[in-house]
């Protein structure tokens, strides 16, 4: 026993303390409780991993039976293997940094304690998700992080746009969860268990059609949680939440849960080529689609949000082409550089007094040098600049995609060029040129820049420090082996550099040109600028018909006139309800009531007397 | 442990309360309900969770001719429903504490009679006694709605009374038919007569008898499309009345289905399960969609009950162990959650004298604890894991998926929709800018309200995390019921030629 339960229990304790007493506690105590609970959890993770003998065969720790009914038996069981170990390090490590950063970022916010309570609760559920040893317990974390996401997106609860975004996130995720739930039903029917070790041991012998169905249903869930087509729509809106939340939940950890689920279920996926192809296609399509939208956004957080959607698409591409460890590798490096991008964006927004529109920024490199430097590291990493973290993981995915289907490589590498372009476009618009905003921009405090510096180091060096494929080794049975193709690497680097170069040309050298290009593109630009009108499309085709149909057709129509109409008709005619009503309303209700009550009472007494009189007589 | 005490204490309280002044009656009601609850905990403590059959039976001949037994007993199916009824007694009294000022002694008397009747329904093992309690329950609740309810109270009360009675009459006919066949009202006797083949029912008879029972249950639950009394009754019922009505009374129907229909008419149940499940699933989705567009939050919660009870019916007629366990678990879980939501609804009403969603908004800012508790109850209702409803709903859907995967697919849509209507309501009532009408008149929870809500919230978490307290007893009883269902009937009967279709 390694007492793995301590890992999520610490943040849970933090949540309870801050959630119940936080309102009355001084800010320093709130911060200490929240930060320490996560840092200690991180320390305990390090302890567990260093003292573990082997992570190849996870030992399941059983705490108690959760739900047991007939053959259905699910326990509160945790386990650690290499995949979980990586996730634990990312979640608690990045989580610690973001908690520290938040003490600075949220210092002047109302509801400081509430923010940290939610953040701790999120850590609890996320750790539960990655430690779980069966699908149902994963689902606990899965829905739980969705709850925290809802609470934190709607943190500024007086703002309607924020609470709308929270609802949207929860409901769209529920659609994904629908898939996960159905997958679990099918898993239990097929395997008579939801425990990982039993399911994975039996999976190879099961019919491909069943495994495909399970895999595709899991993919529905993964697409919801990890914001893939067609369920990505909640993530850009989720930027209504405070920026540290965007970094922790909507970039580094929660949104990667879908990738984790697919990697965790790799045994099921690899037996279904159809499902694997679907995963790869969904991932690739999302990567392209979101990158295109990212080209034309002016809100700095929105740019990074669409970039997250796009990068998650890469991870799914990796998983789908069979390069599970490359997908997980990109998950890790992305956690470094995307958390940094968001925290850096937070620092920028902080510097500009809450402004998020990049057209109101510019020239910040003089005012916020640390942010400028660290964000540069993240931007290099996401562009795949040689030997940064993103370079390694993205390259691994691209090589595997090429081995699977060369056209996928070309689409993906072109998307990588677009990614480099729009991220560096944001970078140049923010830090170069002249300051276009109001007030005096300023650098952020050390509590914020400290985590930035650590994350910058990780963004640069994280790729070779954490060689995930090497760590994972033979964990995934079938691992796509891309030939060591230096040419492919050169091509992807070239696309990345070209993207940076183009951005430099358009936004630093010749900054009048972008507007001209935009206006010459006309309708196409409008389409991209408005995110292909997908939200509007969903609103018209799904939301409005459901709400209006329920209101007019179901409630006012069928319910009132048909179903209840029949009841009232029967009542009024056959039973002459009107007469009874008249009688009841004539003021006699009390005497009527009294008689009924007295009658009931007499009956009860009789029954009681009768019952006791014969008690013991007849058994 | 004498089960008769559980009925006798609130029944005596009922009689006493009628003759007391207002504050004394209120206090008496509180003491009586607490005493009953403590007694029900004693029942739990001495109940043998591992045993499947009836426990604490007390069976005496009450009326010699026709032979009617005063037969009460408890098993895993009824145990938690009894505790739920007893637990919600004090909650209902405390909820009504301030809200009921007019004719209070009568109100609390009826509340106690209602509790006695509910417990009686769950312990009765004689069909006649069962029917008696079934009807007794109706009297106080209809009076509570009709005398202390909202604006349309008389309409709602009359509709409720007549509608449910129309179904009850059919059940009564079925009971009398069974008595003529078997010669006894005693349920254990009737059941063994049917199962040993001593008394034989033709397929036609079995179907008709099943439909007789089913009609009463379907209206009581209610199952779509027999539900239109529910929004009126739930919405018009006053404070504590709506709590017991929504939390426990609906379970009379689902309990009856499991207790009587499944063991007595297994063939009819299996033959008719298909269309009943379809109705249940329509109810799940329809109830959720109609709930979504309600402008009145009490009606919203009422329609959400139609949806949630559809799950219970689905679990029962999946005829699987997992589905049945889930259904019974969900009966209790839904009682706790909906009970809490109705308690909160009446606390909202106490502060604003309105049930319209548009009269609220931004409560989070002025009453954060109120909001927190409401959010927890809403999340339980949505079926968030680690809270009570999740366990029941998941088992129900898993059982349904085993019986027919398509059922689970459609029913799961209800889980998505529940998030839509609850969160949308939470947003409009609790989030946003504070409604002008609330300023200065919306205090956060007081001690009495905390006392009502904390036990409910604790139970939500407990039932969601540590199900082992509750599930073993439920499972033991259900496995016995399913065993009874699997006994092949009508095989060894020489008289009825054509209609033999043993399964």
Outline of the structure:
The complex is a heterodimer of chains A (619) and B (503). By secondary structure, chain A is mainly α.
What does this structure look like?
The complex is a heterodimer of chains A (619) and B (503). With 619 residues, chain A is mainly α. In chain A, 74% of the residues lie in helices and 3% in strands. The model of chain B is unreliable at 489-503 (pLDDT under 50). Chain B has one domain (3-490). Chain B is mainly alpha-helical and 503 residues long. The longest helix of chain B is centred in the C-terminal third of the chain and has 32 residues, at 321-352. The two termini of chain B are 40 Å apart. The interface between A and B is large, with 77 and 87 residues.
Q: H/E series of chain A, N to C?
A: HHEEHHHHHHHHHHHHHHHHHHHHHHHH
Helix content of chain A: over 70%
Helix/strand structural class of chain A: mainly alpha
Number of domains of chain B: 1
Mean pLDDT of chain B: 91
Largest sheet of chain B: 2 strands, antiparallel
What is the domain tally of chain A? 4
Assembly status: heterodimer
- Rg of chain B over CA atoms, rounded to whole Å, is 22 Å
Shape of chain B: globular
Radius of gyration of chain A: 29 Å
What is the straight-line distance between the termini of chain A? 53 Å
Strand % of chain B is under 5%
How many helical elements of chain B?
19
The chain pair with the largest interface is: A-B, 77 and 87 residues
Helix and strand run of chain B: HHEEHHHHHHHHHHHHHHHHH
Strand arrangement across the biggest beta sheet of chain A:
1-2
Q: What summary fits the major beta sheet of chain A?
A: 2 strands, antiparallel
List strands and helices in order, with pairings.
The complex is a heterodimer of chains A (619) and B (503).
Chain A lengths: L5 H16 L5 H25 L9 E9 L2 E7 L3 H24 L6 H20 L3 H19 L6 H32 L4 H7 L5 H18 L8 H4 L5 H10 L4 H8 L1 H5 L2 H22 L5 H21 L3 H28 L12 H4 L1 H14 L6 H16 L1 H26 L14 H20 L2 H5 L13 H24 L3 H9 L1 H7 L4 H40 L3 H37 L6
Helix pairs in contact in A: 1-2, 1-4, 2-3, 2-4, 3-4, 3-10, 3-15, 3-20, 4-5, 5-6, 6-8, 8-11, 8-13, 10-15, 13-14, 13-19, 14-15, 14-18, 14-19, 15-17, 15-18, 15-20, 17-19, 17-20, 18-19, 18-20, 18-22, 19-22
Chain B lengths: L2 H16 L3 H25 L8 E9 L4 E7 L1 H24 L4 H20 L3 H22 L4 H30 L4 H10 L6 H18 L8 H8 L2 H26 L1 H27 L4 H21 L3 H32 L10 H4 L1 H15 L5 H16 L1 H26 L16 H19 L5 H15 L18
Antiparallel strand pairs in B: 1-2
Helix pairs in contact in B: 1-2, 1-4, 2-3, 2-4, 3-4, 3-10, 3-13, 3-18, 3-19, 4-5, 4-10, 5-6, 5-10, 6-8, 6-9, 8-10, 9-12, 10-12, 10-13, 10-19, 11-12, 11-17, 12-13, 12-16, 12-17, 13-15, 13-16, 13-18, 13-19, 15-17, 15-18, 16-17, 16-18
């Amino acid at each position: 026993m390694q007492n793995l339960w301590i890992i999520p229990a610490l943040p849970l304790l933090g949540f309870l303390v801050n959630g119940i007493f936080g309102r009355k506690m001084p800010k320093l105590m709130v911060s200490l409780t929240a930060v320490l609970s996560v840092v200690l959890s991180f320390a305990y993770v390090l302890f567990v991993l260093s003292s573990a003998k082997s992570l190849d065969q996870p030992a399941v720790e059983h705490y108690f039976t959760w739900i047991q009914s007939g053959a259905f038996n699910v326990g509160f069981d945790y386990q650690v293997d290499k995949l979980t170990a990586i996730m634990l390090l990312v979640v608690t490590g990045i989580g610690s940094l973001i908690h520290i950063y938040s003490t600075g970022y949220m210092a002047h916010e109302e509801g400081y304690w509430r923010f940290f309570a939610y953040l701790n609760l999120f850590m609890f559920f996320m750790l539960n998700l990655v430690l779980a040893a069966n699908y149902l317990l994963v689902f606990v974390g899965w829905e739980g992080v969705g709850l925290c996401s809802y609470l934190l997106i709607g943190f500024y609860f007086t703002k309607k746009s924020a609470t709308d975004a929270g609802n949207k996130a929860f409901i769209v995720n529920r659609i994904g969860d629908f898939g996960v739930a159905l997958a679990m039903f099918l898993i239990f029917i097929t395997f008579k268990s939801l425990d990982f070790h039993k399911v994975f041991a039996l999976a190879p012998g099961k019919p491909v059609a069943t495994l495909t169905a399970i895999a595709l249903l899991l993919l529905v869930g993964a697409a919801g949680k990890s914001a893939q087509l067609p369920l990505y729509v909640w993530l850009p809106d989720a930027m209504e939440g405070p920026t540290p939340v965007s970094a922790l939940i909507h970039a580094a950890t929660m949104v990667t849960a879908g990738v984790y689920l697919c990697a965790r279920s790799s045994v099921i996926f690899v037996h279904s080529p159809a499902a694997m192809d679907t995963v790869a296609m969904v991932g690739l399509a999302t990567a392209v689609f979101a990158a295109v939208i990212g080209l034309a956004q002016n809100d700095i957080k929105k740019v990074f949000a669409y970039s997250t959607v796009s990068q998650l698409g890469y991870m799914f591409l990796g998983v789908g082409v069979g390069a599970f460890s490359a997908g997980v590798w990109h998950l890790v490096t992305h956690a470094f550089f995307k958390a940094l991008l968001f925290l850096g964006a937070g620092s920028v927004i902080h510097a500009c007094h809450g402004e998020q529109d990049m057209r109101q920024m510019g020239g910040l490199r003089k005012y916020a040098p640390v942010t400028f430097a660290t964000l540069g590291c993240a931007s290099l990493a996401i562009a795949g600049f040689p030997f940064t973290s993103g370079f390694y993981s993205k390259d691994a995915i691209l090589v595997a995609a090429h081995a699977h289907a060369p056209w996928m490589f070309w689409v993906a590498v072109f998307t990588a060029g677009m990614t480099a372009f729009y991220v560096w476009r944001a970078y140049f618009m923010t830090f170069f040129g002249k300051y276009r905003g109001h007030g005096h921009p300023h650098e952020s405090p050390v509590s914020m820049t400290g985590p930035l510096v650590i994350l910058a180091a990780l963004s640069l060096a994280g790729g070779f420090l954490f060689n995930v494929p090497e760590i994972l080794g033979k964990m995934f049975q079938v691992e796509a082996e891309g030939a060591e193709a230096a040419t492919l690497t050169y091509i992807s680097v070239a696309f990345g550099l070209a993207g940076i170069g183009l951005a430099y040309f358009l936004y630093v050298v010749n900054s009048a040109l972008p507007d001209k290009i935009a206006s010459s593109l006309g309708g196409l630009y409008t389409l991209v600028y408005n995110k292909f009108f997908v939200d509007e499309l969903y609103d018209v085709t799904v939301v409005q018909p459901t709400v209006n149909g329920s209101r007019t057709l179901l409630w006012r129509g069928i319910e009132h006139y048909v179903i209840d109409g029949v009841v009232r008709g029967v009542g009024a005619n056959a039973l002459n309800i009107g007469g009874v009503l008249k009688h009841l309303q004539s003021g006699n209700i009390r005497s009527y009531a009294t008689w009924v009550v007295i009658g009931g009472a007499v009956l009860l007494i009789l029954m009681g007397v009768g019952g006791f009189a014969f008690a013991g007589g007849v058994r | 442990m004498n089960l008769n005490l559980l009925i006798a204490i609130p029944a005596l309280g009922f009689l006493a309360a009628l003759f007391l002044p207002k504050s004394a009656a209120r206090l008496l009601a509180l003491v009586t309900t607490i005493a009953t609850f403590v007694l029900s905990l004693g029942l739990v403590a001495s109940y043998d969770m591992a045993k499947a059959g009836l426990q604490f039976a007390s069976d005496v001949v009450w009326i010699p001719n026709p032979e009617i037994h005063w037969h009460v007993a408890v098993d895993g199916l009824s145990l938690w429903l009894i505790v739920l009824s007893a637990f919600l007694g004090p909650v209902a009294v405390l909820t009504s504490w301030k809200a009921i000022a007019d004719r209070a002694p009568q109100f609390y008397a009826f509340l106690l009679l209602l509790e006695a009747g509910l417990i009686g329904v769950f312990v009765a093992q004689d069909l006649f006694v069962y029917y008696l309690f079934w009807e007794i329950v109706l009297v106080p609740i209809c009076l509570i709605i009709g005398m202390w309810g909202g604006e349309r109270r008389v309409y709602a009360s009359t509709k409720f009374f007549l509608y449910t009675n129309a179904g009850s009459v059919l059940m009564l006919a079925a009971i009398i038919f069974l008595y003529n066949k078997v010669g006894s009202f005693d349920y254990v006797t009737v059941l063994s007569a049917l199962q040993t083949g001593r008394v034989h029912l033709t397929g036609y008879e079995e179907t008709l008898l099943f439909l007789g029972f089913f009609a009463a249950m379907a209206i009581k639950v209610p199952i779509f499309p027999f539900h239109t009394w529910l929004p009126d009754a739930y919405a018009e019922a006053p404070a504590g009345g709506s709590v017991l009505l929504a939390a426990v009374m609906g379970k009379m129907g689902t309990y009856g289905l499991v207790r009587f229909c499944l063991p007595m008419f297994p063939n009819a149940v299996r033959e008719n399960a298909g269309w009943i499940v379809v109705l249940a699933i329509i109810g799940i989705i329809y109830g959720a969609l109609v709930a979504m567009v309600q402008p009145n939050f009490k009606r919203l919660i009422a329609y959400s009950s139609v949806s949630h009870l559809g799950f219970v019916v689905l679990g029962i007629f999946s005829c699987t162990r997992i589905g049945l366990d889930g259904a019974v678990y969900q009966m209790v879980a839904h009682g706790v959650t909906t009970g809490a939501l109705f308690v909160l609804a009446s606390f909202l009403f106490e502060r604003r004298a309105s049930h319209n969603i548009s009269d609220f908004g931004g409560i989070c800012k002025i009453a954060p604890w109120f909001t927190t508790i409401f959010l927890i109850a809403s999340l339980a209702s949505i079926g968030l894991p680690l809270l009570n409803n999740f366990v029941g709903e998941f088992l129900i859907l898993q059982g349904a998926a085993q019986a027919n995967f398509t059922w689970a697919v459609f029913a799961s849509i209800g889980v998505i929709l529940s998030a839509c209507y609850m969160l949308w309501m939470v947003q409009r009532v609790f989030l946003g800018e504070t409604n002008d009408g609330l300023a200065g008149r919306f205090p956060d929870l007081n001690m009495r309200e905390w006392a009502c809500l904390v036990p409910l919230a604790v139970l939500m978490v407990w039932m969601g995390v540590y199900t082992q307290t509750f599930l073993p007893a439920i499972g033991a009883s259900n496995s016995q019921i399913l065993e009874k269902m699997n006994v092949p009937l009508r095989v060894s009967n020489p008289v009825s030629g054509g209609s033999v279709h043993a399964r």
